[in-house]
Amino acid sequence: MHIPDGYLGPTTCGFFYAVMLPIWAVASKIVKKTLKAKQVPMLAIGAAFSFVIMMFNVPIIGGSTGHAVGGVLVAILLGPWAACIAITVALVIQALLFGDGGITAFGANCFNLAFILPFVGYYIYQALTYRAPAISNRRVLAAGIAGYVGINIAALFTGVEFGLQPLLHHTAAGQALYCPYGLNVSVPAMAGEHLLIFGWVEAIVTALVIKFLQKQDTNGFPPKTCGNDTVGLNAETTNGRSL
Amino acid sequence: MKIITKLWIGMAILIALSPLGLILPEHFKAGSAWGEWGAEEMQKLVGYVPNGLAKFSTLWNAPVPDYAFKGWEEKGLSHLSFAYIISAIVGIALVSLLAWLIGKTLTKKGAEHKE
Prior knowledge:
The complex is a heterodimer of chains A (243) and B (115). Chain A is mostly helical and 243 residues long. Chain A has helices at residues 10-34, 40-53, 71-78, 80-98, 106-128, 137-168, 183-215, and strands spanning 58-59, 65-66.
């Protein structure tokens, strides 16, 4: 889902940089107010987790590949604004050092993966876990569903961005200048492969880590903190809600 | 053991397993991710390379393209796996350091606003 350079035209690239700038500004403002000093190690490990989980390319036999993003998990643990920052950091290093995702497309990639994905996932998780006990299977299931829906909505946006290019930019003869596939191809391709395969990877990863964290907290309530760092199930997210 | 320590151990396991993300697609003959083809692949897919794509796709010359060392492309899966692991380690170090620095900066300046 990392759009490379050359697939999106200048209009689309500029548009998404313009959309992301205020989002980054608001994210740092909100995180500044709500993130606690003891949550900083979690922010670091969350960003690192998102980076490394994206290296696990999952093959569609004889077809393409894709991967989980891990961003919904970070959003559940630290809130969507902190997740936005964490995933943006992972995307910066991927683009600059490893050429994974374009420089011109960086705004669009951040919009899909660092904004849409964590926000959709976060609010679905919050809705599904309304009044759920900290150590309940409902939270594990909700995390899985949030991961699945979050990555699929992000993939849908990515498909639309690809698919608009032939409409926006083409030569007089009708040849595409950037992504050559229209919405009729790009949306089914992006949505389909995430609905069928990669969405499930995000769901399983998210649910498993939440299950793991629940198990760390069976010794008592409120859950034990880990050193300076509360990642327990009563850990407040940066929105001040509990996990 | 602290949870954060356990999570870092999990991260080390992920690093060790990361070459699976390279080997499995190779084994099952899966190509690039959708929409992430190079110019040559594009030529095969649609019969031409879109002008803008040809112009911008080489805009940035990443030092470690696709998590592989330059010049190692033909060296086989074991070398590529090694490069993949090194990439994971370097990437995780840089990403966590950068996120940590941002977190430190934001929480320090925001300290007086907190309850």
